[in-house]
Amino acid sequence: MRHLINILDLTVEEIAKLIDVADDIMANPDKYSEVCRHKILATLFYEPSTRTRLSFESAMLSLGGNVLGFSEANSSSAAKGESVADTIAMVCGYADIVAMRHPKEGAPIVAAKHSSVPIINAGDGGHYHPTQTLTDLMTIRHEKGRFNGLTIGFCGDLKFGRTVHSLIAAMSRYQNVRFVLISPEELRLPGFVKYEYIEKKGLECIQSRSLEDVIGELDVLYMTRIQKERFVSEDEYFRLKDSYILTAEKMKLAKSDMCVMHPLPRVNEISVAVDDDPRACYFKQAHYGRYIRMALIMKLLGLIKDDVPYEKPDEEEQEIVYGEFTCRNSRCITTTEQELPQAFKLTDKENKIYRCVYCETRRN
Ligand code: CP
Predict the structure, then answer these.
(1) Would residue 51 show up in a list of annotated catalytic residues for this protein?
(2) Which among 46, 47, 51 is the best mutation to test ligand 1's pocket, defined by most ligand atoms within 8 Å of the CB?
(3) 331 lines ligand 1 (CB under 6 A)
(4) Going residue by residue through the chain (364 aa), what tens digit of pLDDT does each one get?
(5) Active site residue 80
(6) Is the CB of 130 within 6 Å of ligand 1?
(7) 129 has catalytic annotation
(8) Beta strands in 276-328 (DSSP E)
(9) Ligand 1, atom 3: nearest CA belongs to which residue?
(10) Is-contact 106 358, C-beta < 8 A?
């Protein structure tokens, strides 16, 4: 059984096939309207969502299936203190597939360990959001026609922006991709993303504090919201919240075919005047979410005809140590899940760097 916890759980060939299927669903929706008859999707959302939850539910209903779930932790027994492990052990008896969003990083890993049905990570804290990445990749393929050779700029909150982390991981597998990271010092990319997906692979990457200085180089500009809900200090959030605002004036500095993306919701970081620019792709991007999630549900339920065979990538076995270190990330699932052992993987042998198995925070 396959889960989708990290975008790298899917090979590039599988992602290409998912986009093909999503395109076919868009062109021929009737062909797919009964493929999930009698199947049930559970949407377990411990954090707010508009696009991800509703597009998952729309996806399953459009495939002829059914949906159950909750849209806030307080309307579930999590409010009484039930663990993720126990919740999933119950829900996999009620549903055939689960999409879950949780504020704690690594929560979907715990869910997958206790599930007899596929688990889809619909966002875990400031860590990963792989189904947003499928939507993003579908948008890039539609707009640019390729993934190789693109210069992609990420602007805003690169520290807590889980969609950024997943999209960088995904794009790092294509050829000649250049990353341009635009953020204030305080909101730079976390070490695990920079090391694992950029430095270890020797990919080209530049950092800039100014959007105007680099916008002219970009094929894709991925704007992000400053993630208020992840800040410990409200003052810090208010200081940083309007760091970048994409305006019609700034768009004049960009290439005529640059594609502007945003996972949404936006707060103030793209002026509404940009919405009418033909390079603004963010609403299209959100709409693709329904179709790519239809394809993903079909895939994880084994319902894609002639699906590409899964070939596990060759990866060096990582040593895991249990109980030796304690994760210091307050957003890690180890801080709340009962009796979950502390586990760290050796991600960099040369420099003896261990990272938490759940949230990838470096050990003290
Ligand atoms: N892009 C995204 O995850 O949006 P929601 O938070 O509305 O689901």
Answers:
(1) yes
(2) 51
(3) no
(4) 999 999 999 999 999 999 999 999 999 999 999 999 999 999 999 999 999 999 999 999 999 999 999 999 999 999 999 999 999 999 999 999 999 999 999 999 999 999 999 999 999 999 999 999 999 999 999 999 999 999 999 999 999 999 999 999 999 999 999 999 999 999 999 999 999 999 999 999 999 999 999 999 999 999 999 988 888 888 888 888 888 999 999 999 999 999 999 999 999 999 999 999 999 999 999 999 999 999 999 999 999 999 999 988 877 788 999 999 999 999 999 999 989 999 999 999 989 999 999 999 999 7
(5) yes
(6) no
(7) yes
(8) 320-322
(9) 52
(10) yes
- Locate the domains of the chain by residue range: 7-129+287-300, 130-284, 320-356
* Domain at 130-284: CATH code: 3.40.50.1370
CATH number, domain 7-129+287-300, options 3.30.365.10, 2.130.10.10, 1.10.260.40, 3.40.50.1370: 3.40.50.1370
Which one from 101, 165, 225, 290 is the annotated catalytic residue?
Answer: 101
Any atom of ligand 1 within 6 Å of the Cβ of 264: yes
247 an active-site residue?
A: no
13, HSE (Cβ side, Cα atoms, 13 Å)? 8
Active site residue 135: no
Evaluate the CA torsion angle 287, 27, 293, 279 in order and state its sign: negative
Which residue is listed with tokens 């991981």?
A: 169
Q: Which of 52, 87, 135, 334 is catalytic?
A: 52
The secondary structure of 67-109 as a DSSP string is EEEESSGGGSGGGGT--HHHHHHHHTTT-SEEEEEESSBTHHH
